Amino acid sequence: MPERIVCTVVTKSYLAYARTLAETLTEHNPEAKLYVLLADRVEDYFQPETEPFELIYLEDLPEQDAIAQMSFYYTPLEFCCALRGLLHEYILEHTTAESWLFIDCDILICDSLEPIFQELSETSLIFSPHCSRPVPLEQADHEINFLVHGINNGGFMGLRRTEQTRQFIQWWKDRLIHYCFLDCAIGDPRGLAADQLWLNLAVLYFSDFKFLKHPGTNIGHWNFYEKTFERDMQGNVLVNGQPLLFLHFSGWDIDRPHFVSKNTSLYPEEITSPWAELADIYRDKLLKNSYEKTRQFPYTFSKFNDGTPITQAVRRGYYDELKQGIAISAPFENSEYFQAKRYTLDSTHFLREELYGVYQQLVELQQQNHQTHLTLQQTQLSLQQTQSSLEQTVDEFTQFRQQADAEIARSHQTISEMENSIFWKARNVWWKIKQRLGQPEVKLLEQKKE
Question: Is the pTM of this model over 0.85?
């Protein structure tokens, strides 16, 4: 059988998704191999050699100067999308696969992908359209989203080793390096939608392509309204009468697994079809693959080297300066430069981000103030305890002093009483006699008495 390759891109916080993709890919396609490009740094958070996939490092790619700049001016999502062209170039140059598939990490493989590879053997490229039939007029906002984000979904693509594919990869890679911003998410009038809008032009520039029309593929919130889920006599899930090959859980919430996606209002109710059962399976697999742990893994390129967070405004500012030829080198090492620039951009989204940053600083200051107040209270309590201890010690010392004075007074009284007694007076008389007579005479008298 020909070599079967699937590839994807993740940051390390999405490691559980990559593991789940690898697990379900192997379960239904044991001959396939998954390549995962890490748009991040490992930083000892996991052991690549133990993962169920072949890891591609950023350093394995060409265009290293461009990648260094991209890691600063793109957000994590934009960076992952922007690297897709470079990933396909890597597969083209470093494997002998006749064809391969790109599949987003948040996908559950449910059956063999061989029907897609068979279809790919007859064309250079396969794109996955967001939908294949219209919605009612009152739901036209759903179609407007396709006009904004592109007619094709970037979460799936099929490529075969042909000259046209090589040309497509070069063209797409160049565009994504420089123009893969998610403008529509921040209100930028330029209107880019990461990598997807470029695919609108791809179907005009590169004629040897097909649309993925199998009803059981790349099912997400964009085309869910077109799908009918059922089980056959053997219990297999069918979609519109065809085998379910893979589901795309884009915008899906692991804590609300029976709701299709937070990215659309078309499906406000819980789903009760076999899709919900598969959503439960997907959730269980993610949790088994350390979702709760890996989702906390930090993104290497989210901060300057000194730990200062990089805002989206700073990222865009740096990109604009690159275009003007005035950008500084080593941006991650120069947080003070960017903080001093105070970038102002005409976007309510940026304003919201800046306000959120100020809010976070305020929360941190409040937390610090609360901690300082607690420390002060503890210090005051400690001082009070120390003062109380000192007062107790003084009281004990005073009591001891009084007892000592009383004991001394009693001793003086005892001595005075002894001095005034007849015995003491007789002793004093005898002592004086001894002094007057001298010691020898006294001894003589004492001997005569004997």
Answer: no
